[in-house]
Amino acid sequence: NAGVTQTPKFQVLKTGQSMTLQCAQDMNHNSMYWYRQDPGMGLRLIYYSASEGTTDKGEVPNGYNVSRLNKREFSLRLESAAPSQTSVYFCASSEAWQTGRTQYFGPGTRLLVL
Amino acid sequence: DQQVKQNSPSLSVQEGRISILNCDYTNSMFDYFLWYKKYPAEGPTFLISISSIKDKNEDGRFTVFLNKSAKHLSLHIVPSQPGDSAVYFCAASEEGGSEKLVFGKGTKLTVNP
Asked: Which entry of A9, A38, A41, B76 is 20 to 30 Å from B40 by CA?
């Protein structure tokens, strides 16, 4: 039982390049989330998915797209990376009946945009 | 507008003493509160939570207190240990079925041996 896994762990991009951050969970959770963490800013919600086939914007969605590929996987795409997207990205999952409102986080992807 | 505030960016305590981390919130619709702990280069891990119908929840060395009238909660760690050194995030969730969390900016706790 790996919990929440994220790939890659670290990535360097040039401005304008695109990339997809991958997230998978093996806990059979319905809800999945993408956050970014910046120094002194805490964790801010980018997008979330309450169930397979649904996605909704969070606090800071601009510049990102998401895909809930199936119940296990939730990907985050940067179509044209900007230096302001340099951050650490965390994926999380939860299931109301199983975990209440507790979310379980992956180890993070550190992204540097030059 | 920041709905969850952790006004102390850092806190330093001696091993064996009490650590008290504070959190304030502005949204009266929040009815569930959580504390997460985060070590460098790792994801946040759940520590303890409290529902708004309670004013205290205890789990081993960790106790969370909730004062709804003041919109304030605190995390007490007794006794503090060097392994408790980490960033602690307060988070809140609004009633209504959504599992979304709103996080504070975090407090970095350093426990000195």
From this structure: B76
Q: Which two tokens stand for residue A106?
A: 């992956």
pLDDT of residue B59 exceeding 60, the answer is yes
Q: What per-residue confidence (pLDDT) applies to B97?
A: 54
Asked if A5 contacts A105 with a C-beta cutoff of 8 angstroms, the reply is no
Paired with A90 in beta bridges are A35
Which residues of B fall within a CB distance of 8 Å from A109? Answer: none
- Give the CA diameter of chain B: 44
Q: Are A60 and A20 in contact (CB under 8 A)?
A: no
What would the pLDDT profile of B87-102 be if each residue is shown by its tens digit? 999 999 987 656 789 9
* Chain A residues touching residue B104 (CB < 8 angstroms): 42
Q: Which of B41, B42, B89 sits opposite A42 (nearest CB)?
A: B89
Q: What distance lies between CA B70 and its chain's CA centroid?
A: 16
Cβ distance A49 to A56 under 8 Å? Answer: yes
Q: Strand, coil or helix: what is B37?
A: strand
Question: Which residues of A fall within a CB distance of 8 Å from B46?
Answer: 102-104
Distance separating alpha carbons of residues B22 and A111, to the nearest angstrom: 31
Cβ separation of B44 and A43 shorter than 8 Å?
yes
Would an 8 Å CB–CB cutoff place A39 in contact with chain B? no
